[in-house]
Specification:
Length: 261
């Protein structure tokens, strides 16, 4: 298991480096392959050994080798965060046919969360193909585990969350975008494959986290009731919380209801 965690952690660093490119270029409709990575200030191509995840940033001391412009600390943090999330997902699932699917979910969670914070948008270029990728990874994994119920549950949850968010977007268009609707269906596919408790906890946690963050921003006067706060990061955070802790949370809540009854 330790060898697997190490390999996945290293893969997470590489994926995190690629996600930095995704976060920067996808909202601008730029190619992910060309041109090669370059300094956004002086346009000097970044040398291969300076592009090594985390190490490159440390060697350069957070500055461009050509023009000495600052390189945001977010780059190594994204790489480290992706690696940590990959390791956590692997520790949760172990050697499971589901592992590739949820590593992919972890990767797009990082990318979509950052893009939504940056530009208030969840790009179709990531969300829509992820339905196909999710299906291609989750359905065979479910069948390999002889979990037909999980496959069906994922599809039902996908349709249910898409419909629920679609209704919310029409009832309260100022607080919910159609990008959130499309993301909801994708998260339903993933959470439904784990169980209905994951669907319920993940959905509720998204609203709870969003509400708490919104209240905190208003209390600190960094936002008002009319401020547009991206909801995608909270949906994604809620889904990740459900992935790791849905059963304990659902068990705690069920025990609380029983006790109060």
């Amino acid at each position: 298991m330790s060898a697997l965690l190490t390999a996945v952690g290293l893969a997470g660093l590489l994926v995190g480096s690629f996600l930095n490119v995704v976060v920067h270029r996808v909202p601008r409709a730029e190619s992910l392959l060309r041109p090669a990575s370059r300094c956004p200030h002086c346009a000097t191509p970044i040398r291969a050994w300076h592009n090594v995840p985390v190490v490159g940033w440390l060697v350069l001391r957070g500055r461009c080798a050509a023009c000495t412009a600052r390189i945001s600390v977010r780059y190594p943090l994204v790489e480290l965060g992706t690696a940590a999330l990959f390791v956590a997902v692997t520790a949760r699932l172990g050697w499971s046919p589901l592992l590739p699917a949820y590593l992919y979910l972890a990767a797009i969670t990082v990318a979509l969360g950052l893009i939504d914070v940056d530009v208030r948008r969840l790009p179709n270029a990531i969300v829509l193909p992820s339905y196909v990728v999710g299906g291609l990874l989750l359905v065979p994994a479910g069948l390999a585990r002889h979990d037909w119920a999980g496959v069906v549950r994922g599809l039902v949850a996908m349709a249910a969350l898409f419909a629920f968010y679609f209704l919310l977007a029409h009832v309260y268009p100022g607080g919910m975008g159609f990008g959130d609707v499309k993301l909801a269906g994708l998260l339903g596919l993933y959470l439904g494959s784990l169980g209905w408790s994951s669907v319920l906890v993940g959905t509720f946690a998204g609203f709870l986290l969003g509400g708490v963050a919104g209240a905190a921003l208003m209390l600190t006067r960094r936002a008002t009731r009319r401020s547009m706060i991206p909801f995608g990061p909270f949906m994604l955070a809620g889904a990740m919380l459900a992935f790791f802790a849905a059963d304990p949370i659902a068990g705690w809540y069920g025990a609380l209801l029983t006790y109060n009854a």
